[in-house]
Amino acid sequence: xxxxxLLTDFGDKDNFVGVMKGVILKINPRLKIxxxxxxxxxxxxxxxAFLLKNSFKYFPKGTVxxxxxxxxxxxxxxxxxxxxxxxxxxxxxxxxxxxxxxGENIEKIIEITNDKYFLKPVSNTFHGxxxxxxxxxxxxxxxxxDDFGKRIKGIKHLNLPVPKRVKNILLGEVIYIDHFGNLIxxxxxxxFKDFLKDSNxxxxxxxxxxxxxxxxxxxxxxxxxxxxxxxxxxxxxxxAGACAKECLSADLKTPIKIIKG
Amino acid sequence: xxxxxLLTDFGDKDNFVGVMKGVILKINPRLKIxxxxxxxxxxxxxxxAFLLKNSFKYFPKGTVxxxxxxxxxxxxxxxxxxxxxxxxxxxxxxxxxxxxxxGENIEKIIEITNDKYFLKPVSNTFHGxxxxxxxxxxxxxxxxxDDFGKRIKGIKHLNLPVPKRVKNILLGEVIYIDHFGNLIxxxxxxxFKDFLKDSNxxxxxxxxxxxxxxxxxxxxxxxxxxxxxxxxxxxxxxxAGACAKECLSADLKTPIKIIKG
Amino acid sequence: xxxxxLLTDFGDKDNFVGVMKGVILKINPRLKIxxxxxxxxxxxxxxxAFLLKNSFKYFPKGTVxxxxxxxxxxxxxxxxxxxxxxxxxxxxxxxxxxxxxxGENIEKIIEITNDKYFLKPVSNTFHGxxxxxxxxxxxxxxxxxDDFGKRIKGIKHLNLPVPKRVKNILLGEVIYIDHFGNLIxxxxxxxFKDFLKDSNxxxxxxxxxxxxxxxxxxxxxxxxxxxxxxxxxxxxxxxAGACAKECLSADLKTPIKIIKG
Lengths: 261, 261, 261
Prior knowledge:
Three copies of one chain form a homotrimer. By secondary structure, chain A is an alpha+beta fold. Chain A has helices spanning 16-27, 45-53, 98-101, 127-140, 189-196, 244-247, and strands at residues 3-8, 32-37, 64-68, 79-84, 88-92, 106-112, 149-151, 164-166, 169-177, 183-188, 201-205, 208-210, 213-214, 225-229, 234-239, 255-260.
C-alpha cells in the first residue's frame, strides 16, 4: 500500500489539493500520491464516478483511491471506506463509488466514524483535508480498516442513464466529453453487439449519419464525424482533426440512435 | 527535509514548473515535490501570500516551501531564505512570505547571494530555474543555511487590507475567490467575535442580507447566499449549489459589512 | 534511471494522464514521474517539440522522456525509442523529438514493436496507456533497449520555421506564446549576433519599434514593449506588467523584423 490516487472537483486554482497532499505526507512520508483528476465539474458526482470506473484498475494493487467530490460536506452524509480484493476506496457515500464497485468483489464497507484519525478541529467545509486525507494516509500505514468505524452493508447508488431498446432502435446519449471534444456515449461494445448480433446498422447523432465503426481517428476525412470504440469500451463520436463537440454542436445528454438493419 | 512545496504563478501551459522539478531532482533525487498551486494570478503577490499562509503548516516538519511569484525577476530585489522552527522558505523578498511569517518564530533570514548554488549562466527572466530551485534542492540536502548568503534582519511587508471598525459596523472585503466561486473575506473568526461579543448581527454583502452563520454549505436554500467559517478561519460567502461570485455579481474587493445589534 | 518526464496534449480535464501514471507505477513502483506539461495544444507537434527541446537537459541523467502528442494514434505511424548519451526518449515518430535530438549524440533508435511490453488488448485510441507508458516503465527497470524492437536509422523531421536573411533584414516569427503572454520568436541569440556582428539594429514587431535588448522585464515603462533574451536563448517580446499578446494584438506566426544599421 504505497500509492494514493486523488480524484476531486477542487480544480487547480487554489491550495486545496496541495494542502491534502501535505496532510497525507505528514502522516506517511513514503507514499506516492498520483493525481487522477481535479477538474471534475464542481459537485458532478456522475462525472467523477465515470472517471474512477475507467481508471482504478490501472493502478497497483493496494492503491488507496481517494475521491473528494462532496456536495454534502458538513451534512450528515456518510463517509465510507471500501475494501475490495485489490483496492481501497475512501469517499463520501454519495454514489461516487457505485460504478467502480459494480462487479467488484467487495470485502468490507466501513462507515468512517473514528475521529482519532481526523485532523482537529474538523471543519464543516473541507473534509478532504480534515477527514479523507488523513484516513487514507493512516490506511496506507497498515491500520486495520475496522479501526476506522463500523461495518455497514451497502453504499449509495447512482442513477446512470442506461441505453434503451425500442424495437429496432438502441437509444443512448453522450455521458462524457473529453479534453479533445470527443463525445463519449453510454453505448458499450457489449451492449452494441448484443443488440445487433450480426445485423447492419446506422448511427445517428446530432443530425449526422455514420455507417461504420472506424479503427482509428484518422480513418475519416478531415472534419467528418466517425464512430470508434474508445479505450474504455464506450462508443465515441469524434471528428477527424477537430473538436466533435463544436463541429456537431453536441453536448452532454445529446442523444445517439443505433438503428438495426 | 525530504519535501519541497512549490507555489508559483507559472500556470500549466508551459514547461516552467516541469523544468524546475528537473533541476531539483538532478540535485536531490530523493525529494518529494508537491505542487501547492501554480495558478496564482500572474504577479499577484497578495494572492500567493494568502495561499501560502493557509497551507504551509499542513506540511511535514522540515518542508522547504519554495515560492516563485516574482514580478521583479532580473532587478535588484533580494532573494531570501528564511528558517523558522519547523520550516524553510525560499522566495523573492517581495512580501510573499509576510503573512506566513507573522506570528512564527523566525530563526534566521538569509539573503541568497552565493552563486555556487546557482545554475549557470543565470538568466534574467527565470530565477525559478536558475536560483530558487537549485537553492531549495541544496538546502534539502542539508547544506548549512549560512552558506547561501549573509544574514539580514527583516523581510518586506505586505499591505493587506484589514477590516475597519466604525461605530457599530465592521467593514471588510473579499480578498480571495476560490474555484467554486466562494467569496473569502478578510473577516476572521477571532476578529468577528471580538467585535460582536455576544451581540446580534446582520451581514450585508452585494446588496444581500445574511442573518446567521451556517454550519454547512447545504444549510441555505438553493441559490440563496449563506455565510460560513471556512476551513482556514475566514468568513466566507457561498451560495448553495451555485457560484457565489456570479450569483452576487461580486469580485475581489467587494465590501462586506457586519452590523452589530 | 528513476525518473520519467511526461509531455502530452491530454490536458487536465480527464483521467488520461492519471491512468498512464497508474500503469507506470504498476510496472515500476519506485519511479518518480514528473509532469513536464500536459497542455500542449491538441495535436500540436511543433509546440511539444519546442517545449521538449527547452526542457530535457534539465533532468537527471537517465531520465526517460515520454512524449504523447500523437495525432496518428491507431495508424501505421511508427513508435520509437531513442537513446542518447544521457537520456531516453519514447514517442510516436512524428517529428516531436526532432528539435531535441539535433546536435545530440544518438546512440540507438529502436522502432517499438515487441508487444510483450504492451498492455493488452491494445486500443486504437490510447497508445499512451497501452504502449508508451508500459514501454517507458519497463525501460526504467533496465530492460535492454534492443528488446523493444528493431533498430532503425533515422527519425521523422519537423519543418520548423527558420529566420530568413534578406539583405540587411533578419525576418523571424513568433513560434510560442507563454502563460504570461510573452511572445517567443525563432530569433536565437547566436543567429542574432552572427547577423549583426557589432552593427546597430532596430526591431519591428506588430507595428512597434524596439531599439535595444533589455536586461529585465522591468526595464521598460509600464505597458511598453521590450525585447529580452529569454531563459532558453530565444528573443522574446514582453510588455512590462502586462500581456504582450494582447497589448500588441500578436499571435503565433506574427512576423518580427531585425533591421541592421
